[in-house]
Amino acid sequence: MSKGRFPGCKPAFRDKNLCLICDLIREGQSPFEGKHQEELTGLGEGGAAPKGIRWDHQAICDIIPAGSSVLDLGCGDGELLSRLIKDKGVQGQGVEKDVERVVECIAKGVPVYHADLDEGLAGFPDGFFDYVLLEKTLQVVHKPLFVLEEMLRVGRAGIVSFPNFGHYGIIASFVRTGRMPITPVLPYRWHDTPNIHLFTVNDFLDWARARGVAVEHGLSSADGRVRLFKEEDALQAEEVLFVVSRLSKAKSKRRLPSS
Amino acid sequence: MSDPLNALAEPKPKQYDGPDSPRSVGWTEPRRVRLADESNPLPLDCGETIAPVDVEYEVYGEMNENRDNVILILHALSGDAHVAGWDARAEEYGRLWRKTRPGWWDSMVGPGKAFDTRKYCVMCSNVLGSCYGTTGPSSIDPATGHPYGLRFPVITVGDWVRLQERLVTHLGIERLFAVAGGSLGGQQALEWTLAYPERVKLAIILASSVRLSDQGLAFNAVGRHAIISDPDFKGGDYYGGPTPDRGLAIARMLGHITYLSEVSMRRKFGRRYRNGNNTPGFHLGIDFEVENYLQHQGQAFVERFDANSYLYISRAMDYYDAAQWGDGDLDKACSRTVSKFLLVSFSSDWLYTPEQMKELALALCRNRKPVTYVNIPSSYGHDAFLLEVEKLEPLIRFFLEGGSTR
């Protein structure tokens, strides 16, 4: 890893010094604490995920610097936040709609705010958290764009992970059978799925571009292997994770000349 | 069954745990201690001082060696120190209603219950101005040799907590493991975290808020009007003669309406007539079940409560505003605390609404204080904090356990 560089940023960003992560590394605030990429994603040789830990949990734990403030939207049973609090000493707050899961958070000692994300985060100030997480949550909310806006508002950076409905296996299954695909990542039937707003990597990147949101970097997962996001992962990734942030007006002009 | 509201889970009516039950704290004894006297009077928010002050309290479970397993429970408007178990002195103190039922939160406090007395030492004291053993308007004013009546100073939630702090100190407890309460008790718990931040580890606040709404103020005002306009009230000097029972009963009936919800009343009474044949009796007396219920609640209350205490305690409820600790700014007030919070509201509570609890939760969040907020789906209205035992039990137990390991 070259000094002052984040190996994960896109070459186009790197060449023009546009990568926020690289900026942070240069400023001595590396979110990756100088780890190599393999360590960053918690992956061993060849990208195999450690057993029992969800790859995106591991990635998020690696990305988030110790002591950050983190808001986890749709925190579920609090597993991820509990790890972040324990391992990274983050100041963590969860938001969860399901009261049963709220109880599980309490059992883990994770502070949780019982609320519906579709109602927004009124009361949480702008830019209050270092990181806001939407870890496999966006596809289950009623108002995904509103939730994304709230994430961008209250956080300095956002981490969004989601199942990629554009994965070639899903497309093939859909074309072959003419039925809603059921995969290990999307194991539900059409009528009992919580995923009411499925979308693809390209859909998400379109939104980011249109909204002027910087995608700082991405990771993709397929067949139990994780790698840095590449263009072809729009088709090849089963799940992806993007670190995003609002572009300032000046920066947004600088960053999006071609799009 | 076509009513969608019936789909809400309804807990089964619970039997009391008898004094011999392994889940009961068993027979309990009220304790009394003098915490203020002429040489050390209790300063009050109104600017006066009061002495002597005696406090009645109860304790269940063992205090550990470090005295760091103590949970202080705070009671609400009409409550007392008798939280759990069966009062062994009910007869002696003339508290006959206690012979047929255990303490007011017996479902939550005891061996193996949410506040597990095998692990924690649970205590509760009766508030200043009440009528259950702690000095109040019915106590003898040393200046006159007669009961205080309305000469009792106007007291506040802050005064209560100041007195509780004296009790806690008297018992050699440096830091409370937790403070917990519902409604007005929740406001005392909150006050503890702001007035004595370093002395509270965990705070459990149920069906409460940082201040009473204008709607709540209005109900309290009407309740007090009913008492004061009772011909037997006599300016508060009714001790030794007939007591203003009609006024106090009306205040209680009014209060009870605010503790229930439209749905819970519909379920409980369903516009049923008392005569059983479901037709109007064409008279102006008690004809509906709901009227009968309120009448009963009012009557039962006057047998156990003092009208002057109702006036003073409801006034303390009116005056409470946690934002006072931040000169009117709640966020600033919340910056004082170092406790970990569990806040619980109930969806159908319209006296202390979920929105009001969220206000506190967000103020704590904005101060980066660890806070968990839960809005429990319930049809019981404000009373839910006493009734939704099955839903509350895991929340409280896990929250307390989380506090022990950190």
Itemize the secondary structure elements and their pairings.
The complex is a heterodimer of chains A (259) and B (406).
Chain A: H1 11-15, H2 20-26, H3 37-40, H4 55-63, E1 69-73, H5 79-88, E2 91-96, H6 99-107, E3 112-114, E4 129-135, H7 144-154, E5 155-163, H8 168-177, H9 201-211, E6 213-222, E7 225-228, H10 233-236, E8 239-246, H11 249-255
Parallel strand pairs in A: 1-2, 1-4, 2-3, 4-5
Antiparallel strand pairs in A: 5-8, 6-7, 6-8
Chain B: E1 27-28, E2 31-36, E3 42-43, E4 49-50, E5 53-60, E6 70-74, E7 86-87, E8 109-110, E9 115-116, E10 121-125, H1 157-170, E11 176-182, H2 184-195, E12 200-206, H3 214-228, H4 245-259, H5 262-269, H6 289-302, H7 307-319, H8 330-334, E13 340-346, H9 354-366, E14 371-376, H10 384-387, H11 389-404
Parallel strand pairs in B: 1-7, 6-10, 6-11, 8-9, 11-12, 12-13, 13-14
Antiparallel strand pairs in B: 2-5, 3-4, 5-10
Helix pairs in contact in B: 1-2, 3-4, 3-7, 4-6
Record keyword descriptors for this entry:
heterodimer; A: alpha/beta; eight-stranded mixed sheet; 11 helices; 34% helix; B: alpha/beta; globular; disordered N terminus
Notes on the protein architecture:
The complex is a heterodimer of chains A (259) and B (406). Chain A is an alpha/beta fold and 259 residues long. Chain A has helices at residues 11-15, 20-26, 37-40, 55-63, 79-88, 99-107, 144-154, 168-177, 201-211, 233-236, 249-255, and strands at 69-73, 91-96, 112-114, 129-135, 155-163, 213-222, 225-228, 239-246. Chain B is an alpha/beta fold. Mean pLDDT of chain B is 95; it is low at 1-12. Chain B starts with 26 loop residues before the first strand and ends with a helix. In chain B, helix 1 (157-170) packs across helix 2 (184-195), helix 3 packs antiparallel against helix 7 and helix 4 crosses helix 6 (289-302). At the A-B interface, helix 6 and strand 3 of A face helix 9, strand 14 and helix 11 of B.
